[in-house]
Design a protein that fits this description.
This protein is α/β, with parallel strands linked by helices. It is globular. The protein has eleven helices and 15 strands. It is 30% helix and 26% strand. The structure holds NADP nicotinamide-adenine-dinucleotide phosphate.
Length: 324
C-alpha cells in the first residue's frame, strides 16, 4: 500500500510517498481502507517536530479519516467489514490502509459523504468541548470567534449558532468574513483593517463579549481579552499566528473573567465515552445539514505538500482533504 511518510523533521517538501506492506488488524483492531484523510493546522507543526505530540518515526501525517472497514481482528464486534466509519487516530491516516483500535471507530450516518465525514472529529469535537464543557455557553450570550473561517473557527461559528449564541466572526479578510456569514455569523470584524478591541465593544453595544474563542493568539488575544464582558470566558484554543501571547493577569482581575484552557486531545483520553457521544452527535448534525463540515479543497496524496503549504499560508477556509 501507498503511505505518505515523514521520515525526518522538516517542511512539507520533505515528506515522501513509499510503498509499505499492507497492515494486519491485531486483536481489538479493525483494518480500514482510507477514503479521505483530513489535515489540520497542527499537521504543519507535527512534521516539523514543533508540536507537543511527536509520533515515532517514520509516521504518516493526518489525524482523522473516513473509510471502509476491510477486516477485523479477534474480539471485535462493534464494526464489521463493509461498515463506513470515521475516526480520530492522532496521526497516521495519510495512507491507503490503517489498522485502528476498533473502539475509536464511529459509524458514518447515511447521507454523509467520506470527504465531509473525515474532517469532523477534530475541529467540531474541539469546539463542542470548548463551548459546552469549558465555557458553558448559554443561549443569548455573545460569542466572538477569532480566525473564524479556519477549521476550528468555522466550527465555532456554526456550533455557536446551534447553541443559541449571537456570533461575531473575526478574520483577516472580507472574503473570509463573507464565508463566516454564509455559515451563520451575525456580525463580522476584519481585524486586518479594524481595531479588534473597539470593534468588539461596538458589536456588543459597549457591554463586552461573553465568550471569546481564540485559536489564533499572536497579536489578537490581548485586544480581544480587553473587550471581554464581566464574568466572560476567554477560551485558549491555539496559536496559529505562531506567537504565544503573554497576557497581563490584571486583566482577568479587572474584568472578573475566566481565562480557560481547551485541550481536546487530553479530554478524549480522560473521557472516551464523552468523546464518542460528541462525535456521534456531530456526525448526525452533519448528515442532517445542521453543520457544514465544509471542504475547502481535495488533494491527491502525491500533492500533500501543496495542501500543507496552503494551510501554513493562511489560505484555507474549512477543511483540506487528502485522497490516498
Ligand atoms: N486546543 C485544542 O485542543 C486544539 C484542537 C485543534 C486545533 N487546535 C489549534 O487551533 C489552531 C487552529 O487550527 P485549525 O486547524 O483550525 O487551523 P486553520 O484552519 O489553518 O485556521 C487557522 C486560522 O488562524 C488564522 N491565522 C492567523 N495567523 C496565521 C498564520 N500565521 N498562519 C496560519 N493561520 C493564521 C487564519 O485566519 P485569519 O487569516 O482570518 O487570521 C486561519 O484561518 C491551531 O493552532 C491548532 O493547533 C487546538
Amino acid at each position: 500500500m501507498k503511505a505518505l511518510l515523514c521520515t525526518r523533521y522538516g517542511g512539507p517538501d520533505d515528506l515522501e510517498i513509499q510503498n509499505l506492506p499492507d497492515p494486519q488488524p491485531g486483536p481489538g483492531e479493525a483494518l480500514v481502507r482510507v477514503k479521505a484523510a483530513a489535515l489540520n493546522f497542527f499537521d504543519t507543526l507535527i512534521i516539523a517536530g514543533r508540536y507537543q505530540y511527536k509520533p515515532p518515526m517514520p509516521f504518516s501525517p493526518s489525524a482523522e479519516l473516513a473509510g471502509v472497514v476491510e477486516a477485523v481482528g479477534d474480539g471485535v464486534a462493534s464494526v464489521r467489514p463493509g461498515d463506513r466509519v470515521a475516526a480520530y487516530v492522532g496521526s497516521g491516516a495519510a495512507r491507503d490502509m490503517i489498522a485502528v483500535d476498533a473502539g475509536r471507530l464511529v459509524k458514518i450516518p447515511d447521507g454523509l459523504e467520506f470527504d465531509r465525514a473525515a474532517g469532523v472529529c477534530v475541529t467540531y469535537g474541539t469546539t463542542l468541548h470548548a463551548l459546552k464543557d469549558r465555557a458553558d455557553l448559554k443561549p443569548g450570550e455573545t460569542l466572538a470567534v477569532l480566525g473564524a473561517s479556519g477549521g476550528v473557527g468555522i466550527a465555532a461559528v456554526e456550533l455557536g449558532k446551534i447553541m443559541g449564541a449571537r456570533v461575531i466572526a473575526c478574520a483577516s479578510s472580507d472574503h473570509k468574513l463573507a464565508f463566516a456569514r454564509e455559515h451563520g455569523a451575525d456580525e463580522t470584524i476584519n481585524y486586518a483593517n479594524d481595531d479588534l478591541k473597539e470593534g468588539l465593544r461596538r458589536a456588543t453595544g459597549g457591554k463586552g463579549v461573553d465568550v471569546i474563542y481564540d485559536p489564533v493568539g499572536g497579536p489578537y488575544a490581548e485586544p480581544a481579552l480587553r473587550s471581554i464582558a464581566w464574568k466572560g470566558r476567554f477560551l485558549v484554543v491555539g496559536f496559529a499566528a505562531g506567537e504565544i501571547p503573554k497576557i497581563p493577569l490584571n486583566l482577568a482581575l479587572l474584568k472578573g473573567c475566566d481565562i480557560v484552557g481547551v485541550f481536546w486531545g487530553s479530554f478524549i483520553e480522560r473521557d472516551p465515552a464523552g468523546h464518542r457521544a460528541n462525535t456521534e452527535q456531530l456526525l448526525q448534525w452533519c448528515a442532517q445539514g445542521k453543520l457544514s463540515a465544509h471542504v475547502h479543497a481535495v488533494y491527491p496524496l502525491a500533492e500533500a505538500a501543496a495542501a500543507l503549504k496552503a494551510i501554513a499560508a493562511r489560505q484555507v477556509m474549512g477543511k483540506i482533504i487528502l485522497h490516498p
